[in-house]
């Protein structure tokens, strides 16, 4: 019969073995390590670090050069920041911040794969707006459609009779206006083209 002391001893050994096994489990090495940096952590308790380890598309660890060096593997890319500042963030190489933010609250047409879907989304947006408020946004791409034709006001006029609409192509170089938008802007068939075209 096992005494309480012996039972506690066996339990302790089992627990110690489990802890040691967990400590020996190794994480895969980092894909990228940035060292010798001034890393702004956005953590008030520890606002600055020296190095960052990245695995896949995620930050795996932030710490001292020595801590992060332990995550280096034979294929790990290492960048020496030479004391430069490293900031966390989502970066876009070309964004118009205010316009991009406003676009998120407008009609989304980027993945409208057909002219019918294009018109359906504009109709749905029109139903959410007070009479006279403009539908803007877009980011449409007619190259997704079969056939790849530019949309005309005739496509959206039936669903936007009381709602002016002006939706841009994804590249920002073309836009579609419905008849009400053209009328409100004073554009008619007699309006002369501006210098350089429309």
How is this structure best described in words?
- The protein has helices at 4-24, 65-69, 97-103, 115-128, 153-156, 179-184; strands spanning 32-35, 38-40, 48-49, 51-55, 58-63, 77-80, 85-86, 107-108, 137-140, 166-169, 175-177.
- The chain is an alpha/beta fold.
- It folds into two domains: 29-91, Urease, subunit C, domain 1 (Roll), CATH 2.30.40; 97-184, Diaminopimelate Epimerase, Chain A, domain 1 (Roll), CATH 3.10.310.70.
- The strands form three sheets. Strands 5-4-1-6 form a four-stranded mixed sheet. It has a four-stranded mixed sheet with strand order 8-9-10-11. A three-stranded mixed sheet has the order 3-2-7, with no helix packed on it.
- A hairpin with a 5-residue loop joins β10 (166-169) and β11 (175-177).
- The chain starts with a helix and ends in a 14-residue tail after the last helix.
